[in-house]
Design brief:
This protein is mainly beta. The chain has a 31-stranded mixed beta sheet that branches. Strands 33-35-40-39 form a four-stranded antiparallel beta sheet, with no helix packed on it. The longest helix has 10 residues, at 697-706. It is globular, with a radius of gyration of 37 Å.
C-alpha cells in the first residue's frame, strides 16, 4: 500500500536586503545581505544632501506571497527648505509602481507646512494621492496662527481646525468634522475682537461665535472628560488649536459622533473685564433624541503687580440636563495661583433619574480610597483639591476631598510638609479619611501621621502613628506606632468586638406589597399608537382615578416596590414572611390569555440581597429589574389578529383584582365598557374610527354630520 504524499507549503518569509549609503569611508564594503557604497566623492550634490554624522540605509523587503517589493529609506532628506522622511516605494512583480509613501516638512520663513503619511497609489493605471494629516503654522509678524486637516481613508471623513490672529486685535478660529457617507457635519466658528462691545460696569463682549451639527450629536460624557484634561477650550470654543491640534483633530468624531437625524446648535460669546477677566461661555441645544441643554465656560482671572502674579484662576466647567437621563456638572481648576500658592482640583455632580444608572453623586476632589463609584456615572479620575507652596526651605502640600452619594458621605485630607535643605531637613505628614454609609448605617475612619529627621538619604529618627476604626456592627479597631532611633520599634493592635449587624426582626409580606402596588392606579399608564388622537376628545369618566384606554393603545403597569423574577434574601433589611420570588405566570381578559412582556424598573440590590459591607460600597445603587408588564391591545388573544368590536373602542381600567394561588400566578381582570364620544373635530373622528372598522366609516360620518 502506497503512502499518500501531502504537499505542505511553508509560510513564505520576507527577504531583506540593506544598502548603506555614506559620504566617506571605504569604496565598497559587502556583508551578509548588506552593501555599503561611498557617494561623497561623486559630486557636490551628494555632499549637500548626505549627512555628515552617520550614513543612511535603504532597506529592501521582498514579499513572495503578494509579489510586492518595498524600498524603505530610514533617513531624512534635508533640502534646507524641504525635509522629506519616511520614504517607502512599493513595486509589484511586473516592476510596476504600486505605491509611494513619504512625509515632508516645508519651511518658508514664517510659514511651515507639514504633511504626514502622504501616499500616491497606482489603482488600475490611475495615480490617486492620499494623506493622513496636513498641518500649517503662520508667524509673519502681524498675522499668527495654526491649523490643519485630517483625513480618515477608511470611512472617508475629514476633520480640520484653524486659528488666526491679526495684530492682536482680531482673531478667528474654526473646527470642522465632515463625513461623506452617510453625510454629516459638525462645525464651529468663533471670533474675538478688541476693543469690544460695552455692556456696562466695565464689562464688554469681546467675542462671538456659533456651532452647528447636522446628523451629529454632542457626547456629553466625552465633553465632561475634556473639562478635566484641559482640552474643553479647543473642543467647544476653538481656542489653543496650535497647542492641541495633534491630539484633538483625530478625536473630533468622538466628541461630535455621527448620529442620523440628530442635530445641535450652539451660541458662543466671550465677556471681558479689562485685562483681569476673560470668560468664554457657550449654550448648546441637542435634539430630538436624548434632548439636552448644555452650558459650558472657560474662566480666566489674572491680577498681578509689577513683580509677581498675585492671583491666577483658570477654571473650566460644563453642565446641563439630558431630559431622559438627568443632570450633570463638571468643573476643573488648573494652573491657578493665589499669592504664590498653587491651587488645583476637580469637581463633579450627577443626578440621574433615567437610564440604567440612577442616583446622586457630588464630589469635590474625589472619593474615599475604599469607595468606587458606579461606572454608569461615567466619572473621570478626579484630582484632589490641593494647595501647594514651594519656597526654598519650606514646602507644603495640602490635599482634601468631600463627596456625597445616594447612600454615603465621605471626606478626608492629606498634609505633607518639609522644612530644611536638600541635605538636611524635617519631613512630616498627616492624613485623615472618613466614610459614613446611611443604610445600613456603617462608618469607617482612619488617621495617620508621621515625622522624620533626614540627613541626605539617611533617616536619623522617625515616628509614625496610625489608627482605623470601623463600626458599629461589628466594631473593629486597629492601629500601630513605629519609632526609629538607630533601631526600629513597632507596636500594633487589632480588636474586634460586638455583634454582627442583623436584619431587623420586622418581617414583611412581599405579596401584600405587590398587591397594593397592583391596585394603585398611579402605577398604570396608557400609551396610544394613534397619531391622530389629539384631534379626538374623549368623554371624561365619573371616577377620576380610573384610566381610559383606547383600543389601539398599550397598557403598561410598572412599580418599584417588589422586583419580579428575582431571588430576594430580604426586603428593605426586613425578613420576608411569605414569598422570596414573585413571578407573573399569565395575564388574561376574562378567561382569555393574552401576550405580554416585562417592563423594567429600578431597584436597589443592597435592599433585597445579603451583601458584605465591601459589596455594598462597590455595587450599583440601582439596577434594572422586572417591575411590571406591557401589553398591546392590538395583539389579541394568543397573538391572533382579530377585528375590534365597534362597541368596545375603549377599555376602562378600574379596580384590578389580583388572584393569589399556591403557584404565585397572577391574573389581570379588566372589564370592558364603551364610553367614547367625539367632540368638535369631524376629521379627527373619521381618522380615529377608520383604524378599527373600515365598513362603518361612511355610516358613522353621516351620523356625525347630522349632529
Amino acid at each position: 500500500m502506497s503512502e499518500k504524499k501531502t504537499n505542505t507549503k511553508e509560510p513564505s518569509k520576507d527577504n531583506f536586503w540593506t544598502l548603506i549609503i555614506q559620504k566617506d569611508g571605504n569604496n565598497i564594503s559587502n556583508g551578509e545581505n548588506c552593501t555599503t557604497i561611498q557617494l561623497g566623492s561623486l559630486g557636490d550634490f551628494f555632499k549637500t544632501i548626505l549627512p555628515d554624522d552617520q550614513p543612511f540605509k535603504l532597506e529592501i523587503t521582498n514579499n513572495e506571497d503578494k509579489g510586492l517589493k518595498s524600498y524603505a529609506l530610514n533617513r531624512v532628506l534635508d533640502f534646507k527648505v524641504v525635509k522629506i522622511n519616511n520614504i517607502t516605494v512599493t513595486i509589484d512583480k511586473d516592476t510596476k509602481l504600486k505605491k509611494v509613501e513619504f512625509s515632508f516638512i516645508a519651511n518658508f520663513k514664517g510659514i511651515t507646512l507639514s504633511v504626514g503619511n502622504l501616499s500616491i497609489e497606482n489603482e488600475n493605471g490611475k495615480l490617486k494621492p492620499y494623506f493622513e494629516v496636513i498641518s500649517c503654522s503662520i508667524d509673519v509678524g502681524s498675522v499668527k496662527g495654526a491649523g490643519g486637516l485630517y483625513y480618515n481613508k477608511d470611512n472617508r471623513s475629514f476633520a480640520g481646525a484653524i486659528e488666526l490672529s491679526i495684530l492682536n486685535k482680531f482673531s478667528v478660529s474654526a473646527l470642522l468634522a465632515l463625513s461623506q457617507d452617510p453625510f454629516s457635519l459638525a462645525g464651529l466658528i468663533n471670533t474675538t475682537f478688541n476693543p469690544g462691545i460695552q455692556i456696562g460696569m466695565g464689562f464688554e463682549i469681546t467675542g462671538l461665535g456659533g456651532s452647528l451639527g447636522l446628523n451629529r450629536g454632542l457626547d456629553s460624557d466625552k465633553l465632561c472628560q475634556a473639562v478635566h484634561n484641559s482640552t474643553l477650550s479647543t473642543i467647544l470654543f476653538g481656542r489653543d488649536i496650535g497647542q492641541n491640534f495633534a491630539t484633538i483633530v483625530k478625536d473630533l468624531d468622538n466628541f461630535y459622533p455621527v448620529a442620523k437625524d440628530q442635530y445641535y446648535f450652539g451660541f458662543l460669546a466671550q465677556i471681558s473685564y479689562g485685562t483681569i477677566l476673560k470668560a468664554d461661555l457657550g449654550l448648546f441645544l441637542k435634539f430630538p433624541d436624548q434632548a439636552s441643554i448644555i452650558v459650558a465656560g472657560i474662566i480666566k482671572v489674572h491680577i498681578s503687580d509689577k513683580s509677581d502674579d498675585l492671583l491666577i484662576i483658570n477654571a473650566d466647567f460644563l453642565g446641563g440636563i439630558q431630559f431622559d437621563k438627568g443632570l450633570f456638572f463638571d468643573a476643573s481648576l488648573h494652573g491657578s495661583k493665589i499669592v504664590g500658592i498653587n491651587l488645583n482640583g476637580d469637581m463633579v455632580m450627577r443626578i440621574f433619574w433615567g437610564g440604567e444608572t440612577k442616583g446622586f453623586i457630588l464630589s469635590i476632589g474625589g472619593f474615599h480610597p475604599q469607595y468606587t463609584p458606579e461606572s454608569g456615572f461615567n466619572l473621570p479620575s478626579l484630582k484632589r483639591i490641593s494647595l501647594n507652596l514651594d519656597y526654598k526651605i519650606v514646602k507644603f502640600n495640602l490635599e482634601a476631598y468631600f463627596a456625597i452619594t445616594s447612600n454615603t458621605i465621605q471626606f478626608g485630607s492629606l498634609l505633607y510638609i518639609q522644612i530644611g535643605f536638600k541635605k538636611f531637613g524635617i519631613i512630616g505628614y498627616a492624613a485623615f479619611n472618613a466614610l459614613f454609609q446611611f443604610k445600613p448605617f456603617r462608618f469607617l475612619v482612619d488617621m495617620s501621621a508621621g515625622l522624620a529627621v533626614k540627613l541626605g538619604k539617611c533617616t536619623l529618627c522617625s515616628i509614625s502613628l496610625g489608627l482605623e476604626l470601623e463600626g458599629p456592627a461589628q466594631w473593629h479597631a486597629s492601629g500601630y506606632a513605629k519609632f526609629r532611633i538607630i533601631f526600629e520599634f513597632t507596636v500594633d493592635f487589632n480588636f474586634t468586638w460586638g455583634r454582627k449587624q442583623k436584619i431587623e426582626e420586622d418581617s414583611k409580606e412581599v405579596f401584600k406589597l405587590f398587591e397594593n402596588e397592583f391596585n394603585n392606579n398611579k402605577n398604570w399608564s396608557v400609551i396610544s399608537s394613534d397619531l391622530t388622537d389629539n384631534m379626538v376628545t374623549l368623554q371624561a369618566t365619573e371616577d377620576e382615578e380610573e384610566t381610559l384606554l383606547q383600543s389601539n393603545g398599550t397598557i403598561v403597569f410598572n412599580q418599584s416596590a417588589v422586583p419580579l423574577n428575582e431571588k430576594m434574601d430580604l426586603h428593605n433589611n426586613c425578613k420576608i414572611k411569605d414569598y422570596k420570588d414573585l413571578e407573573i405566570k399569565e395575564l388574561a381578559f376574562g378567561d382569555d390569555k393574552i401576550k405580554w412582556k416585562h417592563e423594567k424598573s429600578s431597584f436597589a440590590p443592597s435592599l433585597i440581597r445579603n451583601m458584605t459591607d465591601d459589596e455594598k460600597l462597590t455595587s450599583p445603587s440601582y439596577q434594572e429589574m422586572n417591575g411590571g408588564f406591557r401589553l398591546d391591545m392590538e395583539e389579541k388573544i394568543c397573538g391572533k389578529k382579530e377585528p375590534t368590536p365597534a362597541n368596545s373602542n375603549e377599555i376602562l381600567i378600574g379596580k384590578n383584582n389580583v388572584e393569589q394561588t399556591d403557584s404565585q400566578s397572577q391574573r389581570l381582570i379588566i372589564r370592558d365598557t364603551s364610553i367614547a364620544s367625539q367632540r368638535r373635530s369631524l376629521t379627527g373622528f373619521r381618522r380615529y374610527i377608520k383604524q378599527f372598522d373600515q365598513r362603518k366609516v361612511k355610516e358613522l360620518s353621516n351620523l356625525m354630520q347630522k349632529f
